[in-house]
Each structure stands twice: as C-alpha cells, then as structure tokens.
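Reopening this ticket.

The earlier resolution said the output was attached, but the attachment link was broken on my side. Pasting everything inline this time so it's all in one place.
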Amino acid sequence: MRLKFTLALSLLTLLFAFPATARYAAKPKMTISTLEHSFGVVKPGTPLTYTFQIGNQGDARLEVLNVSPSCGCTTSKYDKAVAPGKTGGITLAIEKTGDYKGEVIKTATVTTNDPVLPTFTLTLRAEFKAE
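Inline output:
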C-alpha cells in the first residue's frame, strides 16, 4: 500500500513539474523597431542598402534561420545568432537600379526561432525619378 502511495505521489509531482518547467523554459524574444524602410525619392542607378536592427530581449539565443528576398535583384546579409540582451542586423541591398522608374517595393521574408514571431516580412520602398 505504501509503495502505491509513493508511486502515485511521484507521478503527481512529475505531472505538475513538467508543465511548469515548459512554461518557464528559456526562449528568445525578437524586437525590431520597424518592418519597413523608405528611401524616399532617389535617382535611377543609385544603389540602395538598409540594415534593420533586431534585438533579443529573451533569455535564449535568437537564431535567424533564413532571409529570403522576393526577387533576385535584392541581396541579404544577416547575423545568424543574437545573444540575449544583444542586437544584430539584417541588411537588404539592391545594387542595380538603373532601369527603375516610379515606385519600387522590394520585400524579404525572415524566419527565426522566436516562438511568438517565427516569420515576418521586411519591406524596402523607393520612388525613382530622373532629374
């Protein structure tokens, strides 16, 4: 009888301990001040580069798993990991803009290990006008 009681008590302890542990597991928490950047009016042929600053306010390492621009004309460079309490960057660049006219919008889809915001889209905008 005492063995059954001890086993039951142990099982109940485990049952309540695991969900509590899962709730308080270390997680990354990404922050970003803006998801969009506008260059305003620019002259065709002007290369465009912008770095989005990302922060990690969580208590686990934030991993940028992938940055996928919407077209081949946009390139990306990014910090693959951001330690808790630190910042990193995701840089998008459009080098060849000589044939661009009017409003141009380029995007990139970002995938991270942040459980709240695992995927989001960054946007670059510019209005190309010849002088």
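Reporter confirms the inline version is readable. Residues 2-23 form the longest helix (22 residues). Residues 59 and 70 are 31 Å apart (CA to CA).
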